[in-house]
Amino acid sequence: MKLANALMSKGNFSNHQNSNKVTLEYPPYQKNDNNAKKIAFILKGPYKLAHVEFLHSFLQGGFHFKSKVHLTLILIDAKEVYPKTIDHVDIISLSSIEDPYKKIQSYILYCRQKNFDHICWVACVQNLSLYMGMQLAPVQSYWSMKYHSIIMPTIQKYAGLGFGGKSFTYDSVKWFRGRAFPALEIPKYNKQEISKLKNTQMISDQDIVVGCFVRSEKLHDKTFWDSICNIIRYKQNVHFVIASQSMPTQLKIYLETNLKSYFCKFHHLGWINTKKWISNVDIYYDSFPRGSCNTIFEAIEMNVPVLMADTSLNRESSALPYLLSSAGGSENLTNTLGIYQSESERLMKCYELLSSIKERRSLSTIQKKLLSRLQNQKHLFAKDYLNFFMDEQYKINP
Known about the structure:
Blueprint: H1 2-9, E1 37-43, H2 52-61, E2 69-75, E3 90-93, H3 100-114, E4 118-122, H4 128-132, E5 139-145, E6 157-162, E7 168-170, E8 173-179, H5 191-199, E9 208-213, H6 222-234, E10 238-243, H7 249-259, E11 266-268, H8 274-277, E12 283-285, H9 294-301, E13 306-309, H10 320-326, E14 339-340, H11 343-355, H12 357-375, H13 378-389
Helix pairs in contact: 2-13, 6-7, 6-11, 11-12
C-alpha cells in the first residue's frame, strides 16, 4: 500500500500514444461522445490459463453492449497476446516493461488518461494489493472466479463465478456470483500425437481410459477412492487416470494396498495439457464430493461422456449447475444427463458405459446438446456482470 501511494504522488510520467492495439505504447485517449461507461479489466499472468476462458467469453458477450460500455483489457504480463474475436475491446500490454516500478507507473498514467468509471482485477492474487491499493476509478472490483477472503478499502465490489444469483451487501461490501461460461478453444491434434500420450503411460489403443482432471485438494474422499478401485477391477483393459498438481499420500497408499497387482492400471499424470489429453479419455468420471469445472466442458466438447456427482458440496465447484440450468433445471432428468446423487448409482452407470460404446455415444450426444445451449449465452453472461460492475441505476438489457 505504501508503494502504491508513493507512485500515486508521482506526477512526471512520459506520455506514450499510438494505435488502438499495441504491445508497449498506449492507445490514444478517446472521448466517449455517446456517454458510454468505461471499464478496464486487469489481467496478470498468461492469457492461456483455464480461468481466462471465462474472461474471454465475457468479453465476447460484451460486443452486444458496445454502444453502452467501452471495454479495455490491460495485460500486465501476457506477451504479444491479442485474443481473437474481441476486436471491440481495447487491449494494452505492459509485458515489455521489466522494471516493476516503471510498469506500475505506466499503469497509473494510462488509467488517469482513460479516466475509467470502473476497474476490475481478474483472478490472480499476486500483485493485487499493489495495483488495486490505489483508487484509480470511482468503483473498483475483484473478480476472483471464486470467492477469496481478501478485503481492501480500495475495492468496493467482489464477484465470483456461479450460475445466476443476485448481488448482496455484507460488511458494507457488495458481492455477486453470476452465471458464467468459458469460451472453449481446443486445438486439433492428430491421432499420432494422442496415441503417444497413452504410450507414455503403457496404455494401448485397445484399452478403455476412465479418469478426471482436478486439483489435488478434491481427492481426499474415501468413497471416491473406492470407486476408482472398483472401476479398475471391473474389466481387464480399464485404466484410471488423474491429472492434478500432486497426489495425496493417503490416496496412493490406499490404492496400492487395495489394488495390489492392479495398481499398475492407475496413472497419476501430473499437471498436464488437459485439452490435449482429454481426447484419450473414454469416460470422464468426476471427483467426489467436489467436482471439476472447466475440464468437464472440455470433455463434453470432445464428445467424452461425463458422470457427475450431485452433492451439496458440488454446487459451486463444478459444471453441475451449468448443465442443470441448460436442461431447464429439472431435477428428475439428472440421471439422464449423467448426474447422480447416489455414488453407487453413478458407479453402476460407469459399468454400463464401460460395456457399451453405444451407451457412451448416447450420453455424450445428450450432454453436447446442453453444452451448445450454454455456448450461445455469452450475451447473458456479459449482461449479468456488467450490470453488477455498473452503479445500480444503470442497467443493461440485450
